[in-house]
Design brief:
By secondary structure, this protein is an alpha/beta fold. It contains 10 helices and 11 strands. It folds into 2 domains: 129 residues, 3-Layer(aba) Sandwich (D-Maltodextrin-Binding Protein, domain 2); 125 residues, Periplasmic binding protein-like II (D-Maltodextrin-Binding Protein, domain 2, 3-Layer(aba) Sandwich), CATH 3.40.190.10.
Length: 296
Amino acid sequence: MGLMRNQGYFAAFALSLAASTWVQACSPSPQGEALSSDVLTGKLTLTGSSTVAPLVGEIAKRFEAEHPEVRIDVQTGGSSRGLADAKQGLADIGMVSRALKTEETGEFQGFVIARDGIGVIVNAANPVAAISDRQVAAIYTDQIQNWQEVGGQDAAITVVNKAEGRSTLELFLSYFELQNSQIRADVVIGDNQQGIKTVTGNVNAIGYVSIGAAEYDIEQGAPIRLLPVGGVEATVETVQTGRFPLARPLTLVTTESPSGLMQEFIQFAQSEAVHDIVRAQNFVPIEAADLAQTLR
């Protein structure tokens, strides 16, 4: 009986080893492994949302500092790229600046690392302090073309819109009950920084970007101003208290239950150890009780 038990054990071990070897051989970039309770090694690739990428980049720097044998490559390109790359195995982890949709939960697992809002921005020299949601929709559909129609100066409005594949665009359209085919944009931009630079350089422009990104750049001297949405001031505080109507989770996504280095990094990105980084980027930290999913 002992011999049979040992034979069964070694057979199971051999199958397990073979499966492990096959997974490592097929992996696009090694997730690494824990050499001990304190030592990690390997590389991770993350792609996706331009809102999430700067935050993850800073978190990655701290993680690498604590684990010198680890390298983490963070690339932008939009939430759609993050999902596509994760699905195709081109990235270990995707970055998405929204919650997973119902139809996506069968393919992906989501791990929230912070919260943010989407704010409407104008140039700081623009005297308009507030416009209604109806007026925003009218501006973006070319029904309102001049700032004078909303209490501003006599000047044509330059409409700045997000490119296809950006979660910020999807959420903006959903909130204002618009279709992208209805938008009449003068400028189409990709990431938040392009939007902020466009509005910075054009006193008559209007756009919408991450509140965190906008507040961070305002602190650095960018001549832009966030307008209220739904009558609520667009600030990190109103996002944190749940009052801001156009808020969203910043999410890391995988196609499988994370393990090894991938699991360690996601847990780190969700932990209190990076709350200072989250706040420094003008995002709202996620408390343990609010996590969309907890790694086991």
